[in-house]
Amino acid sequence: MPQKLDARTAFYLTLPPLLWAGNAVVGRLVHELVPPITLNLLRWLGAALILMPLAPWVLRPASGLYTHWRRFALLGLLGVGCYNALQYLALQTSTPLNVTLVASSMPLWMLALGALFFGARVTRAQLVGAALSMSGVLVVLSRGELRHLLELRLVAGDVFMLLATLSWAWYSWLLSRRAEPDALRRDWAAFLLAQVLYGLVWSGAFTAAEWALTDAHIQWGWPLVAALLYVAVGPAVLAYRSWGQGVERAGPALAGFFSNLTPLFAAVLSAAFLGELPHLYHALAFGLIVAGIVVSSRR
């Protein structure tokens, strides 16, 4: 049963948004050092090396990794191969703050996919909340000026992030449907590793295409090595583990509010490391998105 919100639970739920915001900032910092899709592959290679000693039994024939290959291949495509690659692509032309705010349109896509493909019931409160959240996204896309929205001139990064958010929404719905052995699902390292192993196949194929079709190159050095260590250890492993602990203690409904701390952390980190100060329309967008989450959570 979910517990009340205490200091430890609050820490578990606050750490992941901080790490995810840092992931956006780091992706922006190194966007000239490594191609975005290659960065995604290197990130998950590092995560796999970390997870392998924690759950080596996943490779055994009876683990469920092979008999449920279709499920893990799809989870790996959406959560490992597509989502983060699209996010890093978005950061080539958009700011970390814009990227994390656009990602906060998640309620809209969750409701739409749930109603269309998973038989989920949509309440009036959820529709109002989704409308508020989407209004916040439109504020970001228009840069706070209606004429920009009417001209329909979107930054490429914003579009990539919308696609990434749609991918994550689909991934999240698939996660809610258990189809793998309980032993594999209960072990967080094993469950994540199973997705990563298939995701690496997708990421490898996408990276090969990136190098074949573009002038991709890597500028190796300590800044890039440090960035790879961070994105592999922090957002890819620690955040996943901490989020699972927090959801188990507080329940998914309360935990959902904490995910919207990501744009706030992104604004602070962007100002500190990139000199990208937030604008008034960012505050308006963040307020609309949070209001949408609060309204949609009411029964």
Name the features.
0% strand; single chain; 299 residues; globular; mainly alpha
Describe the secondary structure blueprint for this structure.
Layout: H1 7-29, H2 36-51, H3 69-90, H4 96-103, H5 106-117, H6 124-141, H7 146-151, H8 156-176, H9 182-186, H10 188-213, H11 222-250, H12 252-259, H13 262-273, H14 280-296
Helix pairs in contact: 1-4, 1-11, 1-13, 2-3, 2-10, 2-11, 3-8, 3-10, 4-6, 4-8, 4-13, 5-6, 5-8, 6-14, 11-12
Describe what you observe in this structure.
The longest helix is centred in the last third of the chain and has 29 residues, at 222-250. Helices cover 75% and strands 0% of the residues. The protein has 14 helices and no strands. It has 299 residues and is an all-alpha fold.
Alpha carbon gyration radius: 19 Å
Most strands sheet: none
Give the amount of beta strand, in percent: under 5%
Number of strands: 0
Q: Structural class of the helices, strands and pairings?
A: mainly alpha
Order of helices and strands: HHHHHHHHHHHHHH
Mean pLDDT: 84
User: Roughly how much helix do the residues carry, as a percent range?
Assistant: over 70%
Number of helices: 14
Shape: globular
Termini separation: 20 Å
Low-pLDDT runs: none
Q: Can I get a quick summary?
A:
This protein is mainly α.
